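Tokens as discussed.
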């Protein structure tokens, strides 16, 4: 039987980082070009509820469960994206 899980394709570092940057910039009210991958996520001045909401949406996008504190643990968009890219189920 074919399920939606069968259709899941792992996302690349670039796809993940672009998605995160777009969503952080949307919530921070900045241009996506200002969401540099190596900027500390706390510098975007988003509250914890917004980051948890972004994490929930990111889980849906990549198809895997994440720690609600992943952005605080990884600190940057690049580190978060790299961790996800390396830990996706194939």
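Sequence:
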């Amino acid at each position: 039987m074919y399920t939606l899980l069968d259709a899941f394709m792992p996302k690349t570092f670039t796809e993940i980082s672009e998605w995160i940057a777009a969503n952080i910039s949307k919530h921070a009210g900045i241009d996506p070009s200002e969401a540099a991958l190596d900027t500390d996520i706390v510098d975007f001045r988003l509250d914890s509820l917004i980051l948890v909401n972004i994490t929930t949406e990111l889980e849906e996008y990549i198809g895997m469960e994440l720690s609600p504190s992943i952005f605080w643990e990884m600190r940057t968009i690049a580190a978060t994206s790299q961790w996800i890219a390396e830990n996706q189920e194939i």
